[in-house]
Amino acid sequence: MNINQLNINKMKRLFVTLLLMTSFMASGIAYDFSAVCESGQTLYYNILSETDKTVEITYYEYFVSYWGNYATSYYGVTEPEGDLVIPEHVQFNDTQYTVVKVGNGAFYLCNNISSVTFPNSIIEIGYRAFEPDHGYGYFPVMTGELVLPESLQKLGPWAFKNNEGITAVCIPNSVKMIAAECFCGCSGLKRVTIGLGVEEIGYAAFGGCHSLDTIVVNRVTPPTCNYLPFNNVPKDIPVLIPVGSKTLYEQAEYWNEFTNFIETESLAVNENETDGFAVYPNPTDGEVIIDGMNIIKIEVYNITGQFIKDFKNNNIDISDQNAGMYILKVITPSGVVTKQIIKN
């Protein structure tokens, strides 16, 4: 091979190397506009529909990897941290938009978000929306109960993966699927309530949640489970299910690994019943208010399904009870619905 050919080959290799580097490092702005939210963080938004005036929360910029994946970045700006309050509406160019989605990777690798308050306009939380940078020695500090909005319809894969400080979560009735690895690695998670509408639980959705001590499933028909949804979860913990559904759970794949099913009257509700009321504050020090329904009676049960007391109005008080999780059975003229509350 002559000198000219060697030089040509070197140039070809250099060109390929530069092409790959360009592909990996190519970056761009990922948002249409930004605004400071109530809790003081700068958030970035994409307009989804000018007709409907809707937006999603996104990230500052993106990097395109050689494999075609998108890695989010807050390089050069202050990433969101602390107690985050996501707004229901945001103003841009004299137009008010409704925030309906936390987009894919919106807070990916943000390690210092301690809590999130969602508005009831959010219908989707996307892929890796709140997954922190767990693989390089960082430890996420999102702590306490994760309160998801009742408006939520879709939970994306890896949405809260590796948030080790989350202790409890209630999946709203409007969610149909808990996507793959959604809460995988949430090692501090102790209590999970799965809403009436959940039909499917994805691969390893709760994998590695080894601190789980209670699962509440409001659905009579067991949600279909993909591969290893409860991997490394203790199988002797209480699994509270509606009366009359124990045989179904004992025969359902992956559910049949659990050994301590407890049927409770407080969960014997119609799966088509809408959950159209608000319960606050939750967690509570004792007093709880129920809004949005014509209430006949409210019955309070402990985690094992034992009846505690009842109330004939919209205000209840469990100040005299021990700390822990309780279940409200709300009886209305149109049916019965339930809600989980936590007593501090």
Task: Please tell me about this protein's structure.
The chain is mostly beta strands. The chain has two domains: 24-274, Ribonuclease Inhibitor (Leucine-rich repeat, LRR (right-handed beta-alpha superhelix), Alpha-Beta Horseshoe); 276-344, Immunoglobulin-like, CATH 2.60.40. It is built from two helices and 28 strands. Strands 2, 3, 4, 8, 9, 11 and 13 form a seven-stranded mixed β-sheet that branches. A six-stranded parallel β-sheet has the order 12-14-16-18-20-21. Strands 25-24-27-28 form a four-stranded antiparallel β-sheet, with no helix packed on it. A hairpin with a 5-residue loop joins β5 and β6. The longest helix is centred in the first third of the chain and has 23 residues, at 3-25. The chain is globular and about 55 Å long. It starts with a helix and ends with a strand. Residues 3-25 and 268-275 have low confidence and may be disordered.
